[in-house]
Write a structure and sequence with these properties.
The chain is of the alpha/beta class. It has a single domain, classed as Vaccinia Virus protein VP39 (Rossmann fold). The strands form two sheets. It has a seven-stranded mixed beta sheet, with helices on both faces. Helix 5 packs parallel to helix 7. The chain starts with a helix and ends with a strand.
């Protein structure tokens, strides 16, 4: 059953953290490694979902602001932060409506696994770059555009029903061009292939059929001063 992004994440919120998500399991270790070397003091998590990256940053005593357009996902993130005693500044907001923050307010921005749902990634990346200060960093992760081009979809199961969310076709080059158009320097581009998915997170026949197919895209960029 295909549902809108808003409806899909409202349904998914209650089980999102308990699922064995193959994108998350290959993405998180690489994100943690990249962030560990960056001089971050004030971070913005755009599309925080249930707060996985926001909490990881807050555990490093970084000042974290996080937004999401899904009230259900944001509630989960707030509950987790409260349980851990973490101070995170949460906002219900949408990237497509413009970020409710000043220009150059943050020295780091992470946008994880969400641009694949947006038709205008150039506009989205422009707005992300706006709120990052000169010499600050942007880290973008996403369902790889090559995977979407193959017809793979963001999907989940809940209460004996299968759901798919809209995924907009983009290109790898489109992400990079959008960042360079904003005056960013690309420091790393990581194409994570299907074969890196651990056992149990995807059907074995899928992994064996597409071992070298790009599955997750990670881009680290720096806004020039």
């Amino acid at each position: 059953m295909e549902v809108s992004t808003q409806e899909g994440y409202a349904i998914w919120a209650s089980t999102y953290d308990s699922e064995q998500n193959p994108l998350i399991v290959v993405e998180e270790p690489r994100v943690a490694e990249l962030i560990s070397s960056l001089p971050v003091t004030h971070a913005l998590d755009v599309g925080t979902g249930t707060g996985r990256h926001a909490l990881s940053l807050a555990r490093r005593d970084i000042h974290v602001t996080a937004i999401d357009q899904s009230p259900e996902m944001l509630t989960k993130a707030q509950q987790k932060a409260q349980q851990e005693g973490r101070q995170i500044d949460f906002h219900l907001a949408s990237l497509t409506d413009g970020l409710p923050f000043a220009t150059g307010q943050f020295d780091f921005l992470i946008n994880a696994l969400m641009l694949c749902h947006l038709p205008d990634i150039a506009g989205a990346i422009h707005e992300c770059c706006r709120v990052v200060q000169p010499n600050g960093y942007l880290l973008i992760t996403d369902f790889h555009p090559d995977a979407i081009d193959r017809g793979w979809r963001t999907a989940f199961s809940y209460a004996d029903s299968n759901y798919t969310l809209p995924n907009t076709p983009h290109t790898r080059a489109g992400y990079l061009q959008a960042l360079t158009n904003e005056g960013c320097t690309i420091h790393q581009v990581i194409d994570i292939p299907v074969r890196t998915i651990p056992p149990g997170y995807a059907p074995d026949d899928f992994v064996h059929k597409y071992p070298d197919a790009p599955f997750c895209l990670i881009v680290l960029a720096q806004k020039q001063g």
